[in-house]
Specification:
The chain has 384 residues and is an alpha/beta fold. It has two domains: 246 residues, Rossmann fold; 69 residues, no CATH class. 39% of the residues lie in helices and 15% in strands. It contains 16 helices and 13 strands. The protein has a six-stranded parallel sheet with strand order 5-2-1-6-7-8, sandwiched between helices. It has a three-stranded antiparallel sheet with strand order 9-10-11. It has a two-stranded antiparallel sheet with strand order 3-4. Helix 11 crosses helix 12. The longest helix is centred in the middle third of the chain and has 24 residues. It is elongated and about 85 Å long. The two termini are 38 Å apart.
Length: 384
Amino acid sequence: MSFPLEGMKVLDLTRALSGPFATRMLSDLGADVVKVEPPSGDLTRAYGGRIGNLASHFTQHNAGKRNICVDLKAPGAAQLLLEMVDVADIVVENFRPGVMARYGLDWGTLHERNPRLIMLSISGFGQDGPERDRAAYAPVLHAETGLIDRFAELGKNRAVDFPLSTADTSAAVHGVIAVLAAALMAQRTGEGQHIDLAMVNAQFYHDDFLGMVLNGDTPPAGSGDVWEIEGGRIVIATPFFYLWRTLAKHADLQDPGDDEDSRRQVVADYLAAFPSWDAVTELLDGFNLAWGRVRPWRDAVFTNPSAGPRGVLADIDDRAGGTRKITQAPYRFSDAEAGVRLPAAYRGEHNAEVLSDWLERSASDVAAMREAGILAEQDPTKKR
């Protein structure tokens, strides 16, 4: 079997999360992704514990990619990237609007050189929006799109950002969908195109309850309530009114009156009285009510019974003589492969290899660019 995107060349001009998440997906689908990193390094190289001087967060989102280190401020560096654009199929960048143009790498220039090129630009508020120049990390979008306030108000919690970067990952997923759609269109037309993907658009589009908000309705605090029972906490994935109606009818619960808080207490007492976890889940299965064990977050990926059989985790070279685990691509094709193929790279580790493969540059050419300050390489024994 082969990979769906085998043979496709992706020039990755991204850092932090939205861009690297998107290019990791393209790499797992078989594309040759070359991450272009500045001498200062991607800021996520400092996130999390290190093995072999590679941080966990950087490893998670950059495994599978080859890496070259280019100082765009050096004379001749932008020209090198333009030559790589000439042979690339896709360029992905997530700088603030205007930064690519500052280095002569704007869409107009790239498209003129390579008409079949597809370019994905991920930014917080779009290339031409009124807030285009704002710095935008995931917490900013979580706040600006109302998610932080909604979770605080409806969940009766303190207003705080989420412990995951959904604004980044949703933008990445929709960016990859757009890139693949553009690639299919290019097969018909012979022309590539520029994709302007704003995180603010992606986050609102990704909000499955926004339709209720637009209609003036109040979304639920969540899609299921959590209950304390013998053996742990369980979430029952159904609106409370339906859970109450089901249990009141079939379990003969006494209605304390048309008061939701009182009814919740009746349900809580009823479920807590069962002698075992299995007794509760057998009851719920009998009523065809979906449920889930509320697993401790540090252990969930190790204890979930589907994680092992479904291959949720992959072992990759930890660059220190052993292996380390990262999440594996979730795609299972009937007649193709997908998944991580390379460990995370040190900065500039593949300078010579990539420039030979893509541009047929010799070792002496690479040495000259290193001497000129265009290329740099990380010492693997040092953190950054």
